[in-house]
């Protein structure tokens, strides 16, 4: 944590002390016997134990993408009444679970006071907790000052490639069609077409983030080799191209965090659907992005190529599909009005403004 972030709380730390009683449990997983789901399944205690003696010393809450139905009972009021009496809870998740918390009736009053605008939860928490350390901040400020600061508008394009083919002409067309159709980037002059009348010269700085350099090279070449219909100057920049994701590599994580933060400093943002990299950038920046939908057929460009998201909140990719009140499977995107399904992940859940239809 210290290699990426500053401590958010002056005079204290968010890291567990060395003598914390559960530090030896370093390999929590879906198979951990002490997980709440497994303890329910194995009847270590009932869902509503009658005495404190029946409760374990700690419980592990497994909410990773492979969480079971029993694990996801964490989002039920009856189970929360049990969990609140267990002294230590340890959670592991690779998802943004906040939308699920808003389904818990017992949490709704407190969450409403903390977040009167439910579509700003990640923005407030992220800006409060996630501060780049001095090393990462140097990456951010040097790049921003050199390539982005003087532009009249900054456009972020986050490209996440799913699948085996990293260089997709269809995805490139989707990017260019989306950005030009939504007037985020100017269209190119056709052969023989007269340029717009001279006016105050404006510039756009385009920040492309991707593991590959191919998309950046193509977009940069387009705006170098052709004039724009608006006479705007378009500069295209990509901080790094690491080729593939390197889990646990410190320099790789540093660049990723710097690029997420740089994306959050843009004025408008285009993201790849289903990508948590883009989710964090939009949340930190308070940006409602244009999302490029993942096509069912990779050889076709989706129509429309992108759409404005309903909020800046990340999508919860592995939510519960269970209505705790009626104790049966249900569409959890229809329980409370400000928790709806995501545009880019049809089964996912997303926090939206109270007024969203």
Structural overview:
With 357 residues, this protein is α/β, with parallel strands linked by helices. It has 2 domains: 8-94, no CATH class; 130-190 and 197-314, Rossmann fold. Helices cover 28% and strands 14% of the residues. It has 10 helices and 12 strands. The chain has helices spanning 36-41, 77-83, 98-101, 105-114, 121-129, 134-148, 169-181, 214-225, 250-264, 276-285, and strands spanning 58-62, 88-92, 153-158, 203-209, 233-237, 268-272, 290-292, 306-308, 322-323, 328-329, 339-341, 349-351. A 6-stranded mixed beta sheet has the order 5-4-3-6-7-8, sandwiched between helices. Strands 1-2 form a two-stranded parallel ribbon. Strands 9-10 form a two-stranded antiparallel ribbon. The longest helix has 15 residues, at 134-148. The protein is elongated and about 80 Å long.
CATH architecture of the largest domain: 3-Layer(aba) Sandwich
> Helix count?
10
> CATH topology of the largest domain, anyone?
Rossmann fold
**Total separate domains:** 2
Question: Number of DSSP strands?
Answer: 12
What's the order of the H and E elements? HEHEHHHHEHEHEHEHEEEEEE
Q: Give me the side-by-side strand order of the main sheet.
A: 5-4-3-6-7-8
Radius of gyration from CA coordinates: 23 Å
Mean pLDDT: 92
Q: What is the class of the largest domain in the CATH system?
A: Alpha Beta
Strand content: 5-15%
Instruction: State the end-to-end CA separation.
Output: 39 Å
């Amino acid at each position: 944590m210290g290699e990426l972030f500053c401590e958010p709380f002056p005079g204290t730390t968010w890291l567990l002390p060395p003598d914390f009683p559960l530090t030896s449990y370093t390999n929590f997983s879906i198979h951990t016997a002490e997980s709440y789901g497994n303890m329910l399944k194995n009847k270590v205690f009932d869902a509503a134990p009658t005495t404190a003696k029946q409760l374990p010393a700690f419980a592990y809450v497994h909410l990773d993408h492979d969480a079971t139905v029993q694990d996801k009972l964490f989002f039920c009021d009856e189970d929360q009444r049990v969990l609140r009496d267990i002294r230590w809870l340890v959670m592991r998740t690779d998802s943004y679970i906040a939308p699920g918390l808003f389904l818990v009736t017992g949490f709704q009053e407190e969450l409403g006071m903390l977040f009167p605008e439910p579509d700003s939860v990640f923005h407030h928490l992220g800006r409060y907790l996630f501060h780049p350390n001095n090393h990462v901040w140097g990456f951010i400020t040097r790049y921003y000052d050199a390539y982005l600061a003087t532009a009249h508008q900054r456009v972020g394009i986050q490209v996440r490639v799913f699948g085996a083919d990293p260089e997709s002409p269809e995805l490139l067309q989707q990017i260019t069609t989306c950005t030009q159709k939504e007037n985020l980037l100017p269209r190119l002059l056709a052969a023989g077409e007269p340029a717009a009348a001279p006016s105050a010269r404006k510039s756009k700085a385009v920040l492309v983030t991707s593991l590959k350099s191919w998309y950046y090279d193509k977009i940069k070449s387009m705006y170098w080799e052709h004039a724009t219909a608006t006479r705007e100057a378009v500069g295209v920049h990509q901080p790094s191209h690491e080729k593939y994701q390197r889990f646990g590599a410190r320099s790789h994580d540093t660049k990723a965090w710097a690029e997420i933060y740089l994306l959050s400093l843009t004025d408008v943002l285009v993201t790849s659907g289903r990508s948590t990299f883009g989710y964090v950038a939009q949340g930190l920046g308070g940006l409602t992005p244009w999302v490029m939908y993942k096509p069912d057929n990779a050889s076709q460009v989706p129509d429309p190529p992108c759409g404005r998201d309903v909020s800046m909140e990340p999508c919860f990719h592995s939510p519960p599909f269970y209505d705790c009140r009626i104790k049966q499977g249900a569409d959890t995107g229809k329980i409370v009005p400000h928790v709806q399904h995501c545009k880019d992940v049809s089964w996912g859940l997303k926090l939206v403004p109270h007024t969203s239809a």
